[in-house]
Amino acid sequence: MNAWIRVSMGFVLLEFLFHGYELSRSFASSFQFHDADYVGMQEVVRNLLRGNGYLSTYYSAKGEGSYLTHHFSPSLVFFLPFESFGLARWGYAIGVYFYLSLGTILWTELLLKKRTKQNGSGKIDLVYLLLFGIIANLYLYRLGTSYHFEVLVFPLSAVFFFYYEKQKLSLGLIVSLFAFLFVKEDIVIYFILFFMPSVIWNWISRFRAERNKNKEKKTFTNFTSDTGFLILLICLAYFLFVFFLLPYFIVSNPEHWFGALTKEYPESYKQVTSIPKSIQIFMELIMSSGTGFILNIPSFLGLLSIYLTHALSQRPWHHEIYSYYCYTMIPFLLYTGIVWLREKQSVSVPIFFLFLTLLFFRNLQDSNYPISLQKVGLPKQEERQAKEVTRELESIGNQKILRGSPHVFSQYNLSFFLPLDATLYPLNQVSLTVGKCASKECYLVIAPKFTKEVLVPRSFIESKREAFQKGMLIFKGEWIEVWKLRFDANNKP
């Protein structure tokens, strides 16, 4: 039976990967892989490959800082293999879908590992419901199709919970824990919130058991031998390091991620403000992976605590669980399925189809599940423009205008199509030309008429020519223009 389940999940996964392939092509052809966040994130990984550490030209105030001051995410190294293949700028996208697929496989295996062959008559294996909670999970779909590195929480959480289920402190548990925590600095907060109720619950249960047996002296020893308690201690220590020691004693840049996490936004930024709406979102989240954890009080309290960080957040995208921001809850929601399987291996047919109906009903309410390729595409007029811009980009590539490993200051929607060897910078960092263009040739690649005014005004793009007008215009098409600049040792062009 498990073999049949694996084959079925494999077919579903292949279908999703094909959808991801088509979706990626549509995003690229319609110039929607922008600097924020696709190219900006990929350039961090590219700089790792170049030996520049976590240098971020997009997410640092002066274009020369470390990405770790924006988000403490050392686990970005997991994307290095895909960038090392030299697949133009597709490596990062391939990595995202690879880790989404890997997470699906690992969580499937984790659920099957907890499945027994006992099944009462008139009942359905609970594992089927939980697997539907993976393959038809709206929030996992959003996580994958957002092209964000937070997708790493999906496979890495499966590895962590595999070791955690053994309830034994081991090297594998510690390594998997830190790999998980290293995805993003705030994950440790959700770890603490999720594990705290379970640890307290276990303490109370053990204390009562010990008291009834008149063995109070052994109570503290039992507490410290609890794996969950030890994990909680590690997370608390890590929290103090990342949120206090690192920002104030190691990071010299005052505009670090700690400030971003605590920044307040106007109330008008929020789209979800009512209590009933927040309750609705919470119910939709828990329904996406089954509701068995309601039977487990510590799991329920843990997930509720995590959701409250969203409901009370001043950051609009975090408050609304926008796009990939479901990464905060997905691993813990899935783990509650493991908790459910420990206590119950099957459910009645009516309950199974009730949960399944609610799951698909929620998915049908979202007009972007799945994302329609027609929505991604451009209107006829813009499609014609995009094709002309594409031809000019191909001409620039064929003529090898951007030679060597130059510094390229590029327009937000053109960067994806530029050579891998180029170190890319956003247009708002053109002030760096004096320092950067003394060691290497610098280029400006813009298409002022090919922009969306609501994103980046044409006037802003055109204003960046001034920094390069001391150089030379080496390519001029109907849409794209390329400027070249190089300073000598005396900072003269």
From TrEMBL:
Highest taxon, organism lineage: Bacteria
Pfam assignment, any one: DUF2079
Keyword Transmembrane helix attached: yes
Key words, A-Z: Membrane, Transmembrane, Transmembrane helix
InterPro entries membership: STSV1_Orf64
TM annotation in the entry: 90-112, 124-141, 147-164, 169-183, 189-207, 228-250, 293-312, 324-341, 347-364
Protein name: DUF2079 domain-containing protein
